[in-house]
Amino acid sequence: MNFKKSVNMNRGSAFLAIIFLVLFLVILFRFLYIMVTGSIDGVNLVENKERRITKEGILEGKKGEILTRDGEKIAVDSQVYTIIGVLNKKDPNHIKDIPDTASKLAKVLETDAKEIEQLLSDSKAYQVELGKIGRNITFSQMKEISDLELPGIIFSPDIRRTYPLGDFSSHIVGITDFDGKGISGIEKEYANKLSGTDGYINKKIDGFRGWGYELPQKKSESKPPQNGNNIHTTLDTNIQTILEDSMNQVVKEYSPGKIIGIVMDPKSGEILALSNRPSIYPNEQNEVNYLNYALSSSFEPGSTMKIFTLASAINEGVYNGNEKYKSGAIEVTGTLIHDHKKDGWGTITYDKGVQLSSNVAFTILAKDKLGFDRFYHYLQEFGFDKKTGIDMGDETLGKFVYEFPLEKATTSFGQGSTFTPIQLVTAASSIANDGKMMKPYVIKKIADENGKTLKETQPKVLNKPISAETAKQTRELLTSVVTDGTGSHFQLNDFQVAGKTGTAQIPDGNGNYQVGRNNYMFSFLGMAPADDPRLIVYVAVEQPNLNSDQVGADPVSEIFNTVMDYGLKKLNATSDVDSNKRSTDELTPIIMDSYKDKSVKNTVSFLKEKGIEPIILGIGEKVVETAPIEGTELLKGSKVLIKTDGKKVMPDIRGWSLSDVMKLSSLTGLEIQHEGNGFVASQSIAVGREIKDGNKLSVKLEKNR
């Protein structure tokens, strides 16, 4: 029995030894395989280890800014917030009362509580965002909601494109969607230049213990973000502001369907100001019509077209201003073309016909003096058959209606054929610039985040359709239109204006024109000073509500005269009006002096004497700094902010423009958060409260103040 037991034990031991040997060999083989290949089941151990101990963070590159020619910021990236609702009841900080929370949020966000309640009722979600309703929340809204202390409502910070100057040249600057993608204007056309490039930082952490401590022996890898390029426009802050303000006044007074305004430097082609009404309010993020009428809308120009018919006839040597013709009506292929005064003015000279805007005179010039073929050639030379090539997207092209003799005749005085406002202004630059037609542009330069210029636009001559002598003679005749003809509304005290009015009929969509004294596009295309123009200004007002004692030139001149007069004085243009005709004007610019280290009391007195409104920001006796700075040109009634050597104190800013609020920011270091458009209706920092470093000021703007 003992012998048999010993044999069985030996066999068992041998069997176990074999099993352990096999297992050892398997493990050894597996170990050797891992050592050689460095992987398990296709997973690379080195890479997997690196992933486990590597923490990667994205460093976002900011979009570049859009600025005026004088450095005012029009578009910037700003801090905003996204609302998040915590729904999981296991989280101690979850939403306790959904209807109550939705109701309170709706009041702040000015939206429907039921829509918020529906979003917060997703029982399967741990937490939810509120879609568009809860995105891009301003600092003031975030603070207002935070003060409600709603359980389960938290905020995620984000970056959003904002526009500090509101609707300032909004059709040129453009707008972005909720994701920051440009959908119009410069924001769209130059998106690749503005966009930044994200960077990253990779840290090595102790992933085994799960604490995420950075490993001291491991170096972090990083790539800095590349911010987008800044785009400096040709827009002049002050001229653009005057254009915007005068347009707003006309909207308020006349309620027109549309307004277009363009200001160009005819020597260079720079667009100094451009605006449309209706406007875009980019900070409101609810726009649907981004059409830039100045570039993307063509219409019958009316009598402003006569400028180019006249210049063509003069350049060809077929214009004799002293020659006479019979006004009233002329027949073209069986159809009568009438003057706006149906029975005319009898037999008059062509010079008089120009002053009175006679359709008959310009029909004769195109049909009989030039000939329709030669006239068409000049229209091509003036660029009416092609786009101007302005450095913006969405420029459209008008339509020549020039097949039959009647259509050719009506084109000569601005009916039938359609053109864009930018085509008219570009063509007019040849009249203002001694025959040289300049290419319009709005991008002055593109610079990187360090200020290095990457690209700068240079003036470009598109064509020379007429001679310098023709341009001069045309300006002289257009000056007489203003002094002795239909353009009398557009006379200025200190400058001679050369220009032409336009009254274009509006198609009704059924092959006819709308009727009624208001149903016209009233316009004026003018340049000044007439002897050597520094500015071209085009203004068109569609369908204004006119009283019985008003005419279409009234709303147009309210914009044109204000903008042209101010713009010329800002440019220090030389007056070409006799000294006995000049008068002191409230639009005369006042040059800001330096008041640094001077007495606050004396500075206030000096500014008041000049018609400037001083705003004292501190409790002190000496001036430390002012906004605007020395050398800035101001209008009477402008605000000058004075920082003293005492503590900074919050003024009452209700009724201020956003531009004035930004001056306050530059002096005090306040971070400005704003919503709405127009003028300040409320402020988050109380009047008289001390302003401390790091304070944030939230303001609400309203349009009707």
Give an account of the 3D structure.
InterPro entries: Beta-lactam/transpept, Beta-lactam/transpept-like, PASTA_dom, PBP_dimer, PBP_dimer_sf, PCN-bd_Tpept. It comes from Metabacillus halosaccharovorans. It is found in: Membrane. By secondary structure, the protein is α+β, with helices and mostly antiparallel strands. It has four domains: about 1-55; about 60-230, Alpha-Beta Complex (Penicillin-binding protein 2a (Domain 2)), CATH 3.90.1310; about 240-580, Beta-lactamase (3-Layer(aba) Sandwich), CATH 3.40.710; about 590-700, Trypsin Inhibitor V, Chain A. About 30% of the residues lie in helices and about 25% in strands.
CATH architecture descriptor name of the largest domain:
3-Layer(aba) Sandwich
Number of domains: 4
End-to-end CA span:
117 Å
How much of the sequence lies in strands comes to: 15-25%
According to CATH, what is the topology of the largest domain? Answer: Beta-lactamase
What structural class results from the helix and strand content? alpha+beta
The level of helicity is 25-40%
Largest sheet entry: 7 strands, mixed
